[in-house]
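Readers outside the structure-tokenisation community will struggle with the description of the input data as it stands. What matters is that the chain and its backbone geometry are given together, residue for residue. For illustration, here is how one protein appears when written out as sequence plus structure tokens:

…
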Amino acid sequence: MDEAVEMTSASALLERRWARYPLVLGTFGVGAFVFLVLNVSLGSVQIPLPDTCRIVLGGEGSTWVFRSVIWKIRLPRALAGLLCGSSLAVGGLLLQVFFRNPIVGPYILGISSGATLTVALIMLGGFALGFASVHPFFLSLAALVGAMGVMFIVIAVAAKVRDMITLLVIGLMMGYIASALSNFLIAFAEKERVHKFVLWTLGSFSGFRWDEVKILAIAASLLLPASFLISKPLNAFLLGEEYAKSMGVNVKLFRLLVIFISSALASVVTAFAGPVAFVGLAVPHMARLCLGTSDNRILIPGTILLGATIASFCDLLARTLFSPVELPISATTSLFGAPVVIILLLKRRAAI
């Protein structure tokens, strides 16, 4: 009798949770849309919300200045913020499950350091290489080459090394090597170039053009659905590698897929926005706490939407808080997000 009551109560609890998920996911989605609209409307040039909607929908009647600000500056940046936030958050979630480590982020395998090194070679050593000035798109291309280079090295190592701790340590060491080489370049560079380089390392969504947004969108449209398709093997992997094998998961292929997807997401974001801190590390925790589950079939969509919301909100703060001065996006995400995670964790412990 007691067992039947327990099974009934467990089934009722599960039904309540599944009924709650659409509401939470819908809230995340609405939040992302609201901050998208605010990012397009608000700024040093205030554009009324009706004019914003009319311009985005292709209507006439607004000034040329408003149309130019929205289509050339704000809308590409706002969309890029959504895509970057989603990509970094999912990359962090995949690696946290893969390494079974809650403090792992999308840059843990040296992706950010590889991008930083190639950008340092161009920005700090550009004069010696014959570059008087560098086009921003060329910098993005250099960052992408560096990040993807490190990614392929890590994948090659992962194909030969079975121990995940060893793989993690190798990724960390590669990051240290790339950082050391970047610091050597800083020591011999001119002050002006060092200043520009340091600003790049702080991350920013400013200056996005439609061509770059298209590249981000293509990468996200391929990699984010791919991450959802491996949600069942991820769930099996939560209980250990041996359990995943017993469930029919091809562990070797699974490891390569996780590393490729997470590293590729981080690479594309870093190439165009620079290293963006906190989002990939903390948003998966926030999604778990808000949704109350470790089921990756729910967590991955939740992380996509929450990552977009957090990144978009923090970009709005970075642009408007001390306008016309713009704050680094990494500082904004960390200052906003860290207290939120602490509060959520304390509430969860109090509820237990």
About this structure: The mean pLDDT is 82. The two ends are 27 Å apart (CA to CA). The chain has one domain: 11-351.
